Amino acid sequence: YPKVNLSANPAEATEGETTGVVFHIDQTGATEHESTVTFKLDKGDLEDSDIQSITYTDTAGVAHTVTLAEALAGITIIIPADTAADKMPTVTVVPAQDSNYEISEAFKATISDAKDVKIVTDTANGKFLDDGEIPSVSITANPAEATEGETTGVVFHIDRTGLTEVDSTVTFKLDKGDLEDSDIQSITYTD
Asked: Which residues pair with 161 in a beta bridge?
């Protein structure tokens, strides 16, 4: 009985590249019948805008554009009888380019609903990597001096440059230097 496996190679793709994550639907074992499976994409950490394109390449080497809605609902993958190992179908998911820094985004694909073939490996994982620069953080003091009795005080500003889709976290620590505890009237944090 023929067997089919789902794998991803390459399993990672970086924004700005056109190769994408390539899911391979590979069948082993000779058959005189056409085999079919349903391929479904699971977005996982991805947003719709993270995907530039999805392409299904059939056993004849013909590329078919697939919409995200179709990939999420499931597309029928056909493997004709006696298809050579190097002609097996693939589905390629290409990342979209954007200017925001993002963490790596994991997603997966599955195959199901096998006809005239037994599924051995039904899931494969993919990941999109960001090509942007990590945002930078700086600290400045403005005003940098304060006079006893004034209510304004020294103000430390923590600034971030660069767009990001993830929260940034830093730890602020005060070094008293020449100050004594009694020299400080109050410390206020404003987010």
From this structure: 136
Highest mean pLDDT: which range of 8-12, 142-146, 163-167, 169-173: 8-12
CB atoms near residue 93 (< 10 Å): 26
pLDDT at 56: 98
Mean pLDDT of the chain: 91
- Which string of DSSP letters, residue by residue, matches 112-154? EEEESSEEEE-EEEEEEE--SPPPEEEEEESS----TT-SS--
What does pTM read for this prediction?
Answer: 0.77
Q: Is 109 exposed, middle or buried (0-12, 13-18, 19+ CB in 10 A)?
A: buried
- Residue 26, strand partner residues: 5
Q: How far is CA 74 from CA 39, 70, 134, in A?
A: 5, 6, 36
- The secondary structure of 14-27 as a DSSP string is ETT-SS-EEEEEEE
Tokens at 52, concatenated: 């530039």
